[in-house]
Design a protein that fits this description.
A 7-stranded mixed beta sheet has the order 4-12-11-10-9-5-6, sandwiched between helices. Strands 1-2-3-16-15 form a 5-stranded mixed beta sheet. It contains 13 helices and 18 strands. The chain is 35% helix and 18% strand. It is of the alpha/beta class. The termini are close together.
């Protein structure tokens, strides 16, 4: 193993400037010194010393289709040469056709008419969804959300994100959430199957509606104090926790019985990360609202949005001017989004992702058999998790995972004569989970390479 890496003279000049001029409020330095990157392609990024790193987190799943994807890059370049800018109060072809594509797809899958509303990113689109939900519920500002859930860090989004640290300094602004346990089977009650635990979680939630003294339900008027339940079908920052397949179907029955909307946050798991356009599709339910962002433009443009049922978002109930963002539905972003949909429709993209995910998961399961510190592995499509624990295979071990992340960023591992680094993302309730979100375009040899690099990090961690 190499010693602690020291920044080059050129990088140190930039880091000194960052320390003086940049807000630290919009960034996190996971390693010291931070790397400065100069180029990217496919599944790799290169630092200023031209050291290559295999990236298994792809900008928190924003770059689903690989860095510098030639087809998506070209769509952006072509749009720059035709209609690069137009004010959001004016129409352009891309906005209309991308809205149609998403709405027609939702009609086919969920049997529901709906409309699409754009904004500039995930958190901002969560804010717009809160307006839709509050408007449809006569101003109710209380929401249900999950323990371990993450919906963003704007004021409204952080109010329904379960981490208090994101709102500790700022308080609440309108929304408040009741955080409900998520069926995290690995850390749930022992002696229950995954499906049994999912049903138990739903039954515990349903108990809130048994009498008025459970605090959320008025049986005399059949009204709930809460407007909607915000769900990440697969938890993202919470550690890529995958619930049992019966869970959302049973949960939605309770919500429908009590007039509570289901908002599916697909910001991190949408656009084929799990082998479906939307991860909620795996669970045989009809969401009322879908929030999306990140990979819509493969990270090339800040564009997100919502799809909502017609009854919630038609112009009579949600009129012009209900929300506004200067750069919403901008033509550069919609052009890339349209090309992404065309690209993924030309082959059975979902089947391809599921096959690669199965292969990757089998590799992780093999590592789990050989390394007791891997407590749990799971995955759906190419959303994969690897939980690092103590020698007992259960006690969370954040320190060991932090060590592995730092070792991966040294860029000194050798595989088949090639010197490489490995970029991993850390998530989970205890920050001890490797959340793997590789490029959906990753090749099988690159998956093998990623597993070999992970193995080297596990060896280092167990020998330190």
């Amino acid at each position: 193993m190499s010693d602690i890496r020291i920044a080059t003279a050129e990088d140190q000049i930039l880091l000194d400037k960052e320390a003086k001029y940049c807000s630290y409020g919009d960034t996190v330095h996971y390693i010291e010194p931070p790397r400065i990157f100069s180029r990217c392609e496919g599944s790799y990024v290169w630092d200023t010393e031209d050291q290559a790193y295999l990236d298994l987190q792809m900008w928190y799943s924003a770059v689903n289709f690989g860095y510098a994807n030639p087809r998506l890059n070209n769509a952006l370049k072509q749009q720059i040469d035709t209609l690069p800018q137009i004010a959001s109060q004016y129409l352009h072809k891309g906005k209309i056709e991308l809205s149609e594509m998403i709405a027609v797809d939702a009609k086919k899958k969920f049997g529901l008419d709906g409309r699409v509303h754009f904004n500039v990113g995930g958190s901002q689109s969560i804010e717009d969804s809160l307006k839709v939900v509050r408007n449809a519920s006569n101003g109710k500002s209380l929401m249900f959300a999950f323990e371990g859930g993450y919906h963003g860090r704007t004021l409204g989004a952080s109010s329904i994100t379960s981490s208090f640290r994101y709102r500790r300094r700022y308080g609440h602004f309108g929304e408040r959430a009741n955080f409900i346990p998520f069926p995290y089977h690995f850390r749930g009650p022992k002696g229950m199957t995954k499906e049994e635990y999912g049903s138990q979680c739903v039954q515990q939630f349903a108990r809130l509606f048994e009498t008025e003294y459970n605090g959320v339900w008025d049986p005399k008027t059949n009204q709930c104090e809460y407007a909607a339940f915000y769900v990440e079908p697969i938890q993202g920052t919470g550690g890529y926790v995958i619930p049992p397949m019966n869970f959302y179907r049973e949960l939605k029955q309770v919500l429908d019985q009590h007039g509570i909307l289901m908002v599916s946050d697909e910001i991190q798991m949408g656009f084929y990360r799990t082998g479906k356009l939307w991860s909620i599709e795996h669970f045989d339910v009809q969401p009322d609202v879908i929030v999306f962002g990140k990979a819509l433009t493969n990270g090339l443009n800040p564009l997100g949005g919502i799809w909502a049922r017609e009854e919630l978002i038609n112009p009579k109930i949600f009129p012009p001017g209900s929300t506004h963002s200067t750069f919403a539905s901008n033509p550069l972003g919609t052009a890339v989004g349209l090309e992404m949909f065309k690209m993924t429709s030309e082959v059975d993209y979902g089947a391809m992702v599921m096959a690669k995910g199965k292969y990757f998961l089998e590799g992780l399961q093999d590592l789990q058999k050989r390394f007791p510190i891997i407590g749990d592995v799971d995955g759906l499509g190419l959303a994969l998790r690897c939980e690092i624990c103590g020698p007992d295979g259960f006690t969370p071990d954040k320190a060991t995972l932090d060590y592995m992340v730092e070792e991966g960023m040294k860029g000194d591992m050798i595989v088949d004569g090639q010197k490489l680094g490995l970029i991993l993302d850390v998530g989970g309730y205890y920050k001890n989970v490797i959340t793997l979100a590789p490029s959906l375009e990753i090749s099988y040899p690159e998956i093998d390479l990623g597993l070999k690099l992970l193995e080297q990090l596990l060896v280092r961690a167990t020998k330190r």
